[in-house]
Every structure is written in structure tokens, then in C-alpha cells.
Design a protein that fits this description.
Elements lengths: L23 E3 L2 E3 L6 E5 L6 E6 L3 H20 L2 H17 L1 H12 L3 H22 L5 E4 L5 E9 L2 E5 L7 H13 L3 E4 L5 H14 L6 E3 L5 H9 L4 E7 L2 H12 L4 E5 L4 E5 L5 H13 L9 E7 L3 H13 L19 H16 L3 E4 L14 E4 L6 H4 L6 E7 L2 H9 L6 E5 L3 H10 L4 E4 L18 E2 L7 H4 L2 E9 L1
Parallel strand pairs: 7-8, 7-10, 8-9, 10-11, 12-13, 12-17, 13-16, 15-16, 17-18
Antiparallel strand pairs: 1-2, 3-4, 5-6, 6-20, 11-19, 14-15
Helix pairs in contact: 1-7, 2-4, 2-5, 2-6, 3-4, 3-6, 4-5, 9-10
The protein binds NADP nicotinamide-adenine-dinucleotide phosphate.
Length: 495
């Protein structure tokens, strides 16, 4: 199906692609791109082409900035209560359409329908949370220590924002940026990942229906993100870049943003340690690990990437965990029985193959999986490896797939040092029944987010983000998420 060759019959267009058939979403209208190019969208479960979306050029980038600029003043002057109600409506429409959106995410991303449903609920929640936050933005008032002078601090929308998102959470990574930006009073241009643009466009149609005025949210796909984003960042009216993606691209964008001294929020890669002490509840730890490792088939920045199990329970843990992994049903994302969908691309499978081959060549042993599945689609089976040498490539790189390397450790000090031996610092997981030890280790592990006896950290009400090379800034949380889209203005006065 090409989004330009649609049928209006719902059976032939279950995802409502016809609503956004004609292009980029700029200034509240669906416009063809200035160039002729199209970007094909592939179903990772079948390798079939499911759609083709427009390929924005530099002229389109300039038009998007113009649209965002035209809408900026009236949106920042829109009363917070009104902005809040529009955001709330976005939440309600996402909930109403959750099955359709989950199906679309599964189709273009490949993730299991159950994961896609979870993503839609999580993504919608950013609208509800920020609808509530939009009416609670306040300033500060103080008296200068010397007396007399008064310090007034007003928080103002930062300006036009460029938002760039990855393919692994096509809905949630977009709403985690759009909702707080709109709550703060900013207008935005979203560039979703080329692999999963359909969800972003489906959501754009929904925002319009919710009453988001033309130009407040603009969405554009491009196969040349470097120059297209540089064009936008080169416009002095753009004041914010919020990026989620790999650390490598994040570094490139930080350099680009530096040219105009643009404020940057960076949600980058991870290499999460998952630490299980001897005294942990093994069943609970395995349950948590199944979530931390296998949500999205391992294609998550927070995915457990290095699993450290204390020597006293290592054997029993490996055995039980392997049974759970081997029993997972692998299949197309859209199949409701699937527990582990395909990887996003052939290239992603090849990276996993390389990491597994490297570990095995250094002495690691697969307890299940370890070989690419034959047939079409970008499938890789759930895999457990033991005796993985820490110096293996998979100890340093994001696996981004359903591969769980187990490492053995003896002492608390040893595992803290091992957990911190990485340039990343996004999430970390700790399982122990000793809450004192849990808190002590949590304070020493270098990560922006710690899950203590939990397999999931993400929550729109909590600040999400990393330290070290995992990023700059936070998304979500009581004030953190919106603060990224605001600028403090200090007014000195006396009376
Ligand atoms: P990616 O290759 O860095 O791409 C992310 C986005 O950046 C895509 O929209 C991509 O567009 C765009 N992009 C690529 N090169 C660019 C350039 N030179 N200038 C401007 N934009 C550019 O990452 P990915 O493979 O999509 O996503 C996986 C990565 O994201 C992993 O490292 C994961 O850990 C990270 N991630 C982090 C978080 C977090 O919250 N910390 C959450 C999710 C994912 P194209 O698609 O057109 O290339």
C-alpha cells in the first residue's frame, strides 16, 4: 500500500492512512514535498513495502520553520487552561484510537502488539500529564540578600523547537517531546525516524482533530536528515533542539546546534547493567529481567544490556531464565500471540549476529538461541549467553536485540565497578532483599535512572534521562520535562 494509493473504505485502510495521504504536515495542511522523492516504509515482519512517505528537502524545512514561527505568538498567548484542554483532548483521542495506533506501530516497527499497546498507553499519558502541568507553570519571587531589590523570575516558552525521534518508540518518543513543548507554549517541528513515519503522521491528524492550531505542530520526513535539520537549526528563530537517538548522532547534532548556541536536550544510548544479588527474590528478578530485557524485543534504550548475577545463585538463575527466554513466541508483531517481534532492519540483525559471534569467539556459551532464524523478516531469537568475557563487544555496545549476556560477580564493590565501566549512564536495575544495600548501590551506580527491585523505570511523572554519554536534560517529571522548553527571565525591581 502506498499512502498515495489508498482506498477510503475502512477495511482497505484500517489505519486511516488516507487521512494523511498527501504529504508533509506543515502549517496545518498536508503538502507534497518540494522534491519528487519518496521514503519507503518496510514491514520488518515480512520485508514488504507498506507505504511511501514524502522526502522533505531544504525548502520544506524552511517552510516548516516559517509555519511554526507564524503560529508561535498566538500559541504562547493562548491561556494555559485552553492549552491544557487541547492536550487533554489529544490524550482522549489517543485512548479512543489506541487499537488502531497500536496496530500501526506493530506494522511499521514490528514490535509485538502487546508492547505496542503498552507504548500507546505510555505515549498518551504524556498528554494527560502535561495537560495537568500546563496550568501549574509558575515563577519565583524573592528579596535580594542586600535588601531592597526584588527578584522576579518569569518562565517563558523558549521558542521554536526542532524535535527528532527514533524508530523504537514511534509514538512515545514524539509525545514525550510534543506534549511538554506545547504545554510550555512552544511551537514545534517533528522529524520522526525514516523507518517508522506512519505513526507520527497518524498522530498529527489526531492533534488537528483535538484542536491544535495550524503550525503549532509540524511533521516532516526526510531521507537527508543532516542537511534538513542543519537548515532548520540555521534559522535564528529556532531556539531548541530535543533529540532522542544514538549517542553518535547526538554528538553530531550538538556540534550543529553549537553554531547558533541552541539549547539542546539529548536522550541518547544506554548500556544498562542489571544486577542480581544472592539475597534477591529470584523469581521476581527473572520477572523483572523479562521486562527489562525483552520489552520491544530488546530494542529499548533502557534495555538490560549486561546482566550481573552473584555467584551463589548464578547457576539456578541462568537455568530458570533460559527456560523463560526459550519459551517466548517469536513472530510478526501484529500477531496477538507474538511475544518477540522482528528487529527493525536487516542491518540491526547483522549487528546482533556480529556481537554474538564475537562473544562466542571469546568463550561465551549460548544456553538458547544464538543463531538467526531462517525465512523472511528480520527475526532474531531470544538468546541467553553465559561465560561472556566483559571485554566482549557486547559489553561495551548497545545490543538492541533479544540477547541476554550473563556475567558472574562475587562482591558488591566488584559489581559497582563493572556496572560503571561504560561511557553510558541511562538506566540500571538492582535486585536485592536488603534495602540498605539496594539504596547504597543505587547511589553509587552512575545512571540517570535506577530501578530497585523493578524491571521498568519509565513513567511520565518521573524525570527520564541519562548521565555521561547517555544524554543531557530530562523528559517527563513534575517540572523537568516542561523546564526543558522554557527560559527563565529575571526581572530586577525595587519598591
Ligand atoms: P539514530 O540513528 O540516532 O536516529 C535517531 C533520529 O535521528 C532519526 O530520526 C534519524 O533519522 C535522525 N538522524 C540520523 N542522522 C541524523 C543527522 N545527521 N542529523 C539529524 N538527524 C539525524 O537512532 P535510532 O537508530 O533511530 O534509535 C536507536 C537509538 O536511540 C539507540 O541508541 C537508543 O538507545 C536511542 N534511544 C534513546 C532513548 C532515550 O530516551 N535515551 C530512547 C529511545 C532510543 P533517520 O531515521 O532518517 O536516519
Amino acid at each position: 500500500m502506498n499512502v498515495n494509493q489508498h482506498s477510503s473504505h475502512p477495511d482497505h485502510d484500517p489505519f486511516g492512512l488516507s487521512a494523511f495521504s498527501d504529504g508533509l504536515y506543515i502549517g496545518g495542511a498536508w503538502r507534497p514535498a518540494a522534491g519528487e522523492g519518496r521514503i519507503e516504509v518496510i514491514d520488518p515482519s515480512t520485508e514488504a513495502i507498506i507505504a511511501a512517505v514524502p522526502d522533505a528537502t531544504l525548502a520544506d524545512a524552511a517552510a516548516a520553520v516559517e509555519a511554526a514561527a507564524s503560529a508561535a505568538e498566538s500559541w504562547r498567548e493562548t491561556p494555559p487552561r485552553k492549552r491544557s484542554e487541547i492536550l487533554r483532548r489529544c490524550f482522549e483521542l489517543m485512548v479512543e484510537r489506541s487499537e488502531m495506533l497500536a496496530g500501526l506501530i506493530s506494522l511499521e516497527n514490528g514490535k509485538a502488539l502487546r508492547d505496542a499497546r503498552g507504548e500507546v498507553a505510555y505515549a498518551a499519558e504524556f498528554f494527560r500529564w502535561n495537560a495537568e502541568e500546563a496550568v501549574r507553570i509558575s515563577g519565583e519571587f524573592g528579596i535580594a540578600p542586600a535588601g531592597g531589590n526584588r527578584i522576579v523570575v518569569d518562565y517563558q516558552p523558549i521558542g521554536i523547537c526542532v524535535l527528532i525521534t527514533p524508530w523504537n518508540f514511534p509514538a512515545a518518543m514524539a509525545t514525550r517531546k510534543i506534549a511538554p513543548a506545547l504545554a510550555a507554549g512552544c511551537t514545534v517541528i517533528l522529524k520522526p525516524a525514516s523507518e517508522t513515519p506512519l505513526t507520527a503522521y497518524a498522530l498529527a491528524a489526531l492533534y488537528e482533530e483535538a484542536g491544535v492550531p495550524p503550525g503549532v505542530v509540524n511533521v516532516m520526513t526526510t531521507s537527508t536528515p543532516g542537511p534538513v535539520i542543519a537548515e532548520m537549526l540555521g534559522d535564528p528563530r529556532v531556539r531548541k533542539l530535543s533529540f532522542t537517538g544514538s549517542t553518535g548522532v547526538g554528538r553530531t547534532l550538538l556540534a550543529e546546534a553549537a553554531k547558533n548556541v541552541i539549547s539542546c536536550s539529548m536522550e541518547l544510548g544506554g548500556n544498562a547493567p542489571f544486577i542480581v544479588f544472592d539475597d534477591a527474590d529470584i523469581d521476581a528478578a527473572i520477572e523483572g529481567l523479562m521486562v527489562a530485557k525483552m520489552r520491544n524485543a530488546g530494542e529499548a534504550c533502557t534495555a538490560a544490556n549486561r546482566i550481573y548475577v552473584q555467584s551463589g545463585i548464578h547457576g539456578a538463575f541462568a537455568e530458570k531464565f533460559t527456560r523463560r527466554m526459550a519459551a517466548l513466541r517469536v513472530g510478526p508483531g501484529v500477531d496477538p500471540d507474538t511475544e518477540c517481534g522482528p528487529m527493525i532492519t536487516r542491518k540491526a540483525v547483522e549487528k546482533i549476529e556480529r556481537l554474538v559471534a564475537d562473544a562466542i569467539s571469546r568463550g561465551a556459551r549460548p544456553l538458547c538461541g544464538g543463531r538467526t532464524l531462517a525465512g523472511g523478516g528480520f527475526f532474531y531469537p531470544p538468546t541467553v549467553l553465559v561465560d561472556v568475557p566483559p571485554a566482549s563487544d557486547m559489553g561495551c555496545e548497545e545490543i538492541f536485540g533479544p540477547v541476554a549476556p550473563l556475567y558472574r560477580f562475587e562482591t558488591e564493590a566488584e559489581v559497582i565497578a563493572a556496572a560503571n565501566d561504560t561511557e553510558y549512564g541511562l538506566a540500571a536495575y538492582i535486585y536485592t532483599r536488603d534495602i540498605g544495600r539496594g539504596m547504597r548501590v543505587a547511589s553509587k551506580v552512575e545512571a540517570g535512572m535506577i530501578a530497585l527491585n523493578r524491571g521498568l523505570v519509565s513513567d511520565p511523572a518521573a524525570p527520564f534521562g541519562g548521565v555521561k554519554q547517555s544524554g543531557l536534560g530530562r523528559e517527563g517529571g513534575q517540572h523537568h520535562g516542561i523546564a526543558e522548553f522554557m527560559e527563565a527571565k529575571y526581572i530586577a525591581t525595587s519598591f
